[in-house]
Amino acid sequence: MHPLSEYDSTIKEIASYTAKDHDFSHTALKSVKLALLDAMGCALLANQFKACSKLLGPIVKGTIVPKGSRVIGTKYVLDPVNAAFQNGLLIRWLDYNDTFLAKEWGHPSDNLGALLSLSDFISRSPKRKAAPTVLDLLKAMVKAYEIQGVLALETSYNRVGFDHIALVKVASSALSAFLFGLDESQIAATVSQAFIDVGSLRTYRHAPNTGSRKSWAAGDATSKGVFLAYLVSKGEMGYPKALSSHKFGLSDVLFNGKPITLGRPLGSYIAENILFKVSFPAEFHAQTAVECAIKLHPKIKNRFHDIEKIEIQTQESANRIINKPGPFHNPADRDHSLQYMVAVGLAKGSLLADDYEDEAERNEPLFLELIKKMKVYENKKFSEEYLDPELRSIANSIKITFKSETNPIEEHLDFPLGHKSRREESVPFILNKFKKNTASFYSKNKTGIILDLFEEEEELFRMPVSKFMEYFIH
């Protein structure tokens, strides 16, 4: 095993941060507790979609792993690598979990696939002296969020055609190594393996190839983090210059020699600034656009025939990745179309996961009629404020012009519900979202028990993760 001193500085910083205990702020822990609650609700809702649930279960039918990891909302007990994949895909499936946006973007609760599954497995191991508690899980979440998000501040994988799940793999590998009880140099070895793995091409997120892989790609990444940590726990070596090696290091291969750096010192910045998807499952660059559309709905619901054009101003990132007027081949195509999401909001005054299904488009011709009237533009000010670390806005505006002589109407929002600047306003809505998602899956009585679980914070924090998971198995 290579000594820690030989590793690239970014890998060393990640390993050092991961290995240490930190006194995280109450704000950070409160934020990830809310994110855990939200992610579990997203997973329960996703369980009810056949395209998702068909991917669950053991590869060999009937297999149950003694003292293994549980899969949310099911009876399955699997090895922690496979469980991480399945818990990860459940949390991510509906594009409804939390988000962080920078030069790269992503969904930090994607890492819960690894953190939950491995903590559950370790908690149930008779060889483990101290079972990981929910508080341990929350601290691991803060670290995973920080690693993924801070790496996203200065380096854009999407611009070179690679998917943001590369950063999920790095964060999940670091925290999986930590949960396995590995030392700092072993954590570095695991992280180097993850960087060498890079990630997937973004092919499956963009027309004409948009497909359901984008809903399980994070599960794939987080489970690979567990697997890499497992290999290192068995003595597998690391690669100290995974980032900086001439010609074959990640820096040269993808970024023309630009170093892979951390955008700020590692602490709890990401957890404190995380974005929650509160009201509807929509790609986050479109959240304010959908809010605007829903606000406009009452003003236009009797005037659809009179609309001449719909102008949407957005940020550069949204213009590049979700400016997609169709045609739409599947739900994954629709939930990454700015136009489709806005059209549903304008037509219905709401946006639900079911609205992305093929039947929804077939049954409501108004969606496509509205899309034909749309033009999407980048607003430079929106783009600048999107990258401003003091603002982190996700601005959109919608202007509707009518055929008649009436004045156009317009809505503009800089910060969506779920943004740090609207966090207190958001909390009741996030709790209601969780209650609604849980009640759609469990009985009223069990839903009440689970809600009470999150209210009793001290008891929750002391609870072993294995016991916590028992509340969410079928």
UniProtKB/TrEMBL annotation:
InterPro entries: 2Me_IsoCit_deHydtase_PrpD, MmgE/PrpD_sf, MmgE/PrpD_sf_1, MmgE/PrpD_sf_2, MmgE_PrpD, MmgE_PrpD_C, MmgE_PrpD_N. It holds the Pfam family MmgE_PrpD_C. It catalyses: (2S,3S)-2-methylcitrate = 2-methyl-cis-aconitate + H2O. Pathway: Organic acid metabolism; propanoate degradation. Residues 22-261 form the MmgE/PrpD N-terminal domain. Keywords: Lyase. SUPFAM superfamilies: 2-methylcitrate dehydratase PrpD (SSF103378). Coiled coil: none annotated. The keyword Cell membrane does not apply. Its EC number is 4.2.1.79. It is an enzyme of class 4 (lyase). Residues 280-449 form the MmgE/PrpD C-terminal domain. It comes from the Bacteria. GO terms for molecular function: 2 iron, 2 sulfur cluster binding; 2-methylcitrate dehydratase activity. The keyword Phosphoprotein does not apply. GO terms for biological process: propionate metabolic process, methylcitrate cycle. Belongs to the PrpD family. This is 2-methylcitrate dehydratase. It comes from Candidatus Criblamydia sequanensis CRIB-18.
